[in-house]
Design goal:
mainly alpha
């Protein structure tokens, strides 16, 4: 893990990581649950249900807990990678890095939820949008700590050389 974070300014590596994370989020967010790829008739029966409230068909069970943690933890890597990629420019302050990352997590999640509203075997839920956005925020915070830690280590190494 130390090798991955040794040179945090390696923009290309972090950009590739961010793209792979986004592909993973889109794949797992948009592939229908229980979808039979051979039988495409499922796509003909579209029903629009956009951002259902959290109390709609709520059941506190194992499925809810899995969904809760998948949505929360799924966007943390996105937040980490996006903050690190955007931190490679000196034109964005730390506050704006955080705001832009949360906004991007929100917009990516909103796009996924909007598409899921039209998918018969998926549901578009408001709590998914909220949890994904919070996951992006937590990831942004972790990314900021990685950036700060890297600057501290780099500064310490330069200081020891004198």
């Amino acid at each position: 893990m130390n090798i991955l974070f040794r040179n945090i300014k390696d923009h290309h590596l972090w950009l590739i990581i961010l793209i792979l994370i986004m592909i993973g989020i889109l794949f797992f967010g948009l592939v229908p649950k229980g979808f039979d790829f051979k039988n495409r008739v499922h796509w003909l029966s579209l029903e629009k249900q956009f951002l259902l409230p959290p109390w709609h068909q709520f059941r506190f069970n194992q499925g809810f807990l899995i969904d809760f943690f998948v949505n929360l933890l799924g966007f943390i890597p996105f937040g980490v990678a996006l903050v690190i990629v955007m931190s490679n420019t000196d034109r964005i302050s730390k506050r704006w890095l955080l705001v832009l990352t949360v906004l991007m997590a929100f917009l990516l999640s909103l796009m996924i939820e909007a598409i899921q509203a039209w998918m018969p075997s998926r549901s578009s839920n408001l709590h998914d949008l909220i949890l994904n956005t919070i996951g992006g925020l937590l990831g942004a915070k972790v990314g900021m700590r990685i950036i700060n830690r890297n600057k501290f280590i780099t500064t310490g190494i330069i200081h020891l050389q004198y």
